[in-house]
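Handout, page 2. Input:
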Amino acid sequence: MKRISVLSAAALILPFATAAAQQPAATPAPSAAGPITLSFGAFAGRYAGWLSAAFDSIPPGLYGYRPTPAQQTVGYIAQHLEDANYQLCARFGGMTAPATAKDSLADTLKAQWPKDTLVTRLKASLEFCQRAFETLDDAKLADVLPAGPAGSGRTVARARYVLAYVTDLVDHWSQIANYMRLNGLVPPSALPRPNP
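Output:
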């Protein structure tokens, strides 16, 4: 009797299994990161790319440029972005930012470094942030992390640091794009896009 039951079950299942095997492959599952993390990452990547290209294309002689005395110079923006990137991405990525003795110098001194130094350091910070994004998924965005001075007891959701990173890139992109236009340069976002 048991033989008949097993054979009957096999006879019922086999046609369905064969039909399933003949179906086209299923669409791959969405990334494990989730749609929210992927959206943040996509915007961060776009603005990081534009900023990197902008700082590459700005001539070294303009790194001391600022439209008015109250505004930041191009060099100051580059060193500020490097520092902010490391601080924010280390927090949301749970990573330790690399540190050198030069990092303790005053921002006004770092802003005067040669273009090559500033661009190399900025790009390294953007790569660090890309690695931090690779540690994220949508579920982690709600994690509670410490905020403010040590021992303050303040906390925020991890998403706050992610959002701060992306909006900081957008803010400084707007700033540097305007500086470029004031100097007759075309910001990378306004360049013709290649045909697919």
